[in-house]
Amino acid sequence: MLGYYMDLALRSLRRHKMLAALMVLAIALGIGASITMLTVLHNLSGDPLPQRSGVLFHPQVDPRPKDLPGADAEPPDDLTWVDAQNLFHLPGSYPRVLMDGNWLPARAMRGDSLLAMQSDRATTADFFSMFDVPFVYGSGWTAQDDAQHARVVVLSSALNDKLFGGADSVGKQMVIATKTFRVIGVIGPWHPQPRFYDINNDDGPYGKAADMYLPFFTWIDLPQDYGYGSMRCWGNDANAGQHNPKAPQCTWAQLWVQLDSPAQVASYRSALRQYSLQQHELGRFERAPNVRLRGLLDWLDYKRVIPVMVRMQTWIAFGVFLICMLNTIGLMVAKFLRKSGEIGVRRALGASRRDVFAQCLVEAGVIGVAGGLCGLPLAWLGLWMVRQQPVSFAASAHLDLSMLGAALALSLVAALLAGVWPSLRAARVTPALQVKSL
Amino acid sequence: MNAMMQIRPILAALKSHRAAVTLLVLEIALTMAVLGNLVFIVHDGIRRAHTPTGVAENQIGFIQSIGVIGAKSASTTAGDLAALRGVPGVEAAAYGGPPLWYVERDAAFAHVDRLHRVARIYEFEGSRGLSKTLGLHVVEGRDFERSEVPVMGQMDEHTQFPVLVTRALAQRLFPDGSALGQLFYDGNATLRVIGVVDHLRGRITGHEDDDYSAVIEYGVGKGHMGGGFIIRSRPEQLDSVLKQAAIALSKADPQHVQNRVMTFEQMREHYFRSDLAVGRMLLAIVLILMIVTTLGVTGLANFWVQQRRRQIGMRRALGATRGDILRYFQLENFLIVSGGVLLGAICTYGLNLFLMHRFELPQLPPIYLLVGAAVLWGLSQLAVFGPALRASRVPPVVATRSA
């Protein structure tokens, strides 16, 4: 029966080409606009590290004074210098990583290599294993290197191309902030989006990963005054940390820990509380323990990283979709009622209302799938437009297989929904009246 | 036949198409709501992109020259500035950052106890001549004098800094009288107002406090600093002079890393480029909506004409002219769209309220409703014209045939 209805639907669409084209176009435009925005939203709200996100946690403590005007209940995102060291050295065998990032002047050792500012991530040994960073050459450093403030550096492939022509540069030397460093590794392309581990930095949550990775405690000792990443200070002097990362009222360092089981999470959380309590008793923390231990995805959710404009455009796209649907409903009523005569004959020959309803709905479905198919190139065009936007997240806007499927499913469901009421009306056509007027 | 007499039969006829009319009214209303708000967002963006910062935008260029800490160097900032001023075509040069760059933001207090912050302000700090290089307009009081400016390395916590403030900030800090000669405080210094400038916006976000700025000048002494250098030149030769200036600066200070060299206009373009891109996206959506709605109106009108061929034939047989039929469909369309526009006005405000609440959008001025209504009326008249023309060509003889 379905095949027969399909055949009827195609015939009917062919007969009224204009009307059919209008309906398909309306659905296609609606699907195109909404799939474009949904894809952007889907990409931006994706899991930046699918294999690891379940075990990565972001601890926060609250070192702020008790009565701080305008302060909310949430502790600061990042850590002060003192808390960063203390929490990093908290006992326990969990993998952990302490970090921050800025820009430092760097060049290769060769005479003709010019100094240029390069983005860096100052971090600790576990960074590469915890975040699944792929290596092309060499490897990361060890906890011992961290402790000894070793002058070693890991480069991105892009910077390795620029400085060493893409060759295996392990063992080569370079100058960073006037000090000599030894290259010990080169990583492959690695750009988790959003850049979950540091989303308050200048370039926002969709900024690029850094080009140089150096040991955190080596970095903090470098002769430098180039800003300290996501520096935020409370109190009257908002710029207290500008030249002094060790200012007690300034937070800027990020800490991540890997906790593999709920028991570990619970024990780490209590250790965090214990630490806060101890600092409170020492008088360093004025507030009672106010700690958070969010998982990676919770953290992104809490920080609402998706840009306002994208959220707004998604709403708008749905408005457009709704309008396109209304339009389609109107056109379908027109279409189905136009063949009232035909329906009358079918009814008179014994088709039940349900049969007529089913027939009309199949026609609606065919229109929907056609609209979806035509909508895909439009969505592709829309995403191309998004990629032209000079914003950091734009590059990630690509149609993937799941979105293709979603587009087709959405158009089919939408067309069926839009078809229900017109089909009901068509099914109510009185056979006698129609047959008489034939 | 006057228009009022035509309206009654139209309304009567519409009653038998209640469902389709409702759909069309809803579609028009929603289209108007989305369209109005989209155009508003785009227009707001354009307006922001054209807000002046208060500096001589077409005359200034910027060189970011970063000093390498720990590198041995014989250069000084004074030497750097002298080198810049020596470039032919450079009318003024100063150390400091222009608007839309990383301008420092600090709290401002009216009282020295610093308990109640009055405002967050942009602090444009730089070497002597910063305000002249930026091309600020002093509207009250006076510009800096060479002798009064404190010198680097000779300041302490008691130093009073003479400052220029914007008119907006002066009114915020001292609502009851002139700001001239008054003291106020930032996070760690005491500031004395010597003059008021008309505008100086640190960033352009559309908020009132964009224009809360203060200019602080100091002598660079024997210091050697990295950061921003601003030059001013005649607009037509700015590009080439800026290039020469960058070369001169790197010669005078070979240890510095030049990260960015750009004219203020390039900086402004960079600052607003994502806004403009978003605007283009939204305009694409506006276009899609207009197409869809026009197609929808055409489709339904076609259907109605088809359905009423016999009635049209009868009217023609009874003496109605082609013009009468044409006008009938146009008027019918006008009435339906008017219903949609009325409902649409409410929806537009509703959507605007929602966007204001959720995305901090400003309130939509009523003129958008009028323009939106006019656009929809026009579009749907255009859409209905074809079908109406076809209706008017239905020959009277149709009335005598059975359908």
From TrEMBL, chain A:
Q: Is-annotated flag, keyword Membrane?
A: yes
**At the top level of its lineage, which domain of life is listed?**
Bacteria
Tell me one GO molecular function of this protein: transmembrane transporter activity
Record-level GO cellular component terms: plasma membrane
Q: Does the keyword ATP-binding apply?
A: yes
MacB-like periplasmic core domain: which residues?
21-274
- Bilayer topology: Multi-pass membrane protein
Where located?
Cell membrane
Keywords assigned:
ATP-binding, Cell membrane, Membrane, Nucleotide-binding, Transmembrane, Transmembrane helix
Domain ABC3 transporter permease C-terminal: from-to ranges: 316-431
**Residues annotated as transmembrane:** 20-41, 315-337, 357-381, 401-421
Q: What is this protein called?
A: ABC transporter ATP-binding protein
What is the protein's species of origin? Oleiagrimonas soli
